[in-house]
Design a protein that fits this description.
It is globular and about 65 Å long. A hairpin with a 6-residue loop joins strand 2 and strand 3. The strands form 4 sheets. The chain has a 6-stranded mixed beta sheet with strand order 5-4-3-2-1-6. A 5-stranded mixed barrel has the order 14-17-15-16-18. Strands 8-9 form a two-stranded antiparallel ribbon. By secondary structure, it is α+β, with helices and mostly antiparallel strands. The protein folds into 2 domains: 132 residues, no CATH class; 289 residues, Spore Coat Polysaccharide Biosynthesis Protein SpsA, Chain A, CATH 3.90.550. Helix 12 packs across helix 13. Helices cover 31% and strands 29% of the residues. The chain is built from 15 helices and 19 strands.
Length: 464
């Protein structure tokens, strides 16, 4: 007997489970019929894996590989077995030739071909998280770990003209909180990696990958001669090299809207949930947890689409997509979304988008950060195939609303601040916010006070 135990934390595993009733009749069914009936049961479990144990036994004409996954149920879809979130269960993976898995009341069987077990175990053994292979969903085991992120950076940056004639908006520099000058996109990539993301996809305009690739590339010989004795620079160069290994680029062939840009990442995402961020937004957390980490943790519990939101005054509604929903009474404040509207008018919002618990005159507006299941691409494809546009473009919000109408969708108030560096004043505001939250905060405050005092002496504020 050989046993292997591995601990997988914060991982969601979707399995097609059999209905508890009628288990006695399974012994007479051929394996392929049993599998079809099992899938037809229509029950989908989302679980957090606690441990995995394997046991191999040889029996005449019934070789069985028994893989038992101890787990906590996070959610159940169309349940017919009485399982409820919070319950502890054992998911039993049984060789397809073994017709009668011996399972108890707290055990859920799943059949698959025996040759699939070694690959499954290899991917989860001794790992903190499990990343599914492309075909795992078809085999019946998929884990909803958010390990991929998509950053859109295909816009022209017209609001930052003429600076963006020679440099992509997302490459405009900022002095980050650590005091290092970086292009905006690097700050966002670091947000992802610090939140547990493993792979990042940057969506660029046609032919637009080169400047990004150049930034994240290794030092060339000339650069090495310049920075050879500067340890801080070599450390930064090494960090860029490590980031480069995790970045994939996809092109948006033509500028047809934000939804169209996101759709280009479907091949990169595959069958996994993913984090979506804007390439011109900087996020500063108000807690020790990164903003992206807060959203991912909400997904880990809800196991459905999650949008980060922030209470926003009604005079800013023309800038943001807005949601309304039913408070779930959790902390941080989380809402079951009942409607999504792109940049609503104040009148529409007052009539349709007021949310219980949100102070009067404020609404839940998008923070610029989401976690989506891969099903969002089906909604995007519907809009693209049917050429459904708003203001001539394939919008993203309409696909979000379509997804919401088909499955559960929640919003979470993120503790932090979103900053849009894609507009001139927003760029200034972003830099000030980074500086005031960074290692040179005291010096920044002193400099601002000095500048304000001199400016007031030269030109009283009332006359500006």
């Amino acid at each position: 007997m050989k046993r292997t135990r591995a601990h997988c934390i914060a991982a969601g595993l979707v399995v097609c489970a059999a209905v508890a009733a009628g288990m006695a009749a399974r012994a007479e069914l051929p394996p392929d019929v049993y599998r079809k009936r099992q899938q037809a049961a229509g029950e989908s479990l989302r679980i957090q894996v606690l441990s995995v144990e394997t046991k191999e036994t040889d029996e005449p004409r019934r070789k069985r590989i028994d893989v038992r996954t101890r787990a906590r149920v996070l959610g159940v879809t169309r349940s017919k077995s009485g399982l409820k979130p919070g319950a502890l269960v054992t998911v039993v993976y049984v060789h397809s030739a073994y017709k009668e898995p011996l399972t108890g009341p707290s055990e859920v069987p799943i059949l698959a071909k025996g040759k699939e077990y070694p690959a499954f175990l290899e991917r989860i053994r001794d790992k903190q998280t499990y990343s599914p292979a492309a075909g795992d969903a078809k085999r019946g085991y998929t884990m909803g770990v958010v390990r991929k992120a998509v950053i859109t950076a295909a816009g022209r940056g017209t609001r930052q003209f003429p600076a963006t004639r020679s440099i992509q908006k997302e490459l405009l520099p900022l002095v980050d909180r650590d005091g290092v000058t970086k292009p905006t996109v690097q700050v966002i990539v670091e947000e992802c990696l610090a939140s547990g993301i493993e792979d990042v996809c940057i969506v660029v305009a046609k032919g637009g990958a080169a400047p990004f690739q150049e930034h994240f590339s290794r030092l060339n010989e000339a650069e090495r001669r310049v920075f050879g004795n500067k340890e801080w620079a070599l450390s930064q160069a090494d960090a860029l090299r490590r980031m480069q290994e995790r970045i994939t680029y996809v092109e948006q062939e033509s500028p047809e809207g934000y939804g169209h840009a996101v759709y280009q990442a479907r091949g990169f995402v595959g069958d996994e949930p993913f984090l979506l961020l804007l390439g011109d937004h900087i996020y500063i957390s108000g807690t020790k947890k990164r903003c992206a980490q807060q959203v991912i943790e909400t997904y880990n519990v809800a196991q459905c689409a999650v949008s980060a939101v922030q209470q926003t005054p009604d005079d800013k509604l023309h800038l943001f997509g807005t949601v309304t929903g039913r408070p779930l009474g959790s902390e941080p404040p989380t809402y079951e979304v009942t409607e999504i509207k792109e940049k609503p008018s104040i009148e529409y919002a007052a009539e349709h988008l007021q949310t219980p618990g949100v102070k009067r005159g404020y609404y839940l507006c998008f923070f610029g950060m989401h976690v989506f299941p891969p099903g969002i691409f089906d909604c995007l494809r519907y809009h693209i195939d049917n050429d459904i546009r708003e203001k001539g473009e394939i919008q993203f919000t309409s696909s979000q609303e379509m997804l919401r109408s088909q499955e559960r969708y929640v919003a979470v108030e993120t503790v932090g601040e979103r900053l849009d560096m894609g507009v001139p004043f927003g760029y200034v505001e972003t830099q000030m916010a980074l500086a005031l939250n960074g290692v040179e905060r005291t010096e920044t405050l002193a400099a601002l006070l000095r500048i304000v005092a001199k400016s007031a002496a030269w030109e009283p504020f009332g006359q500006v």
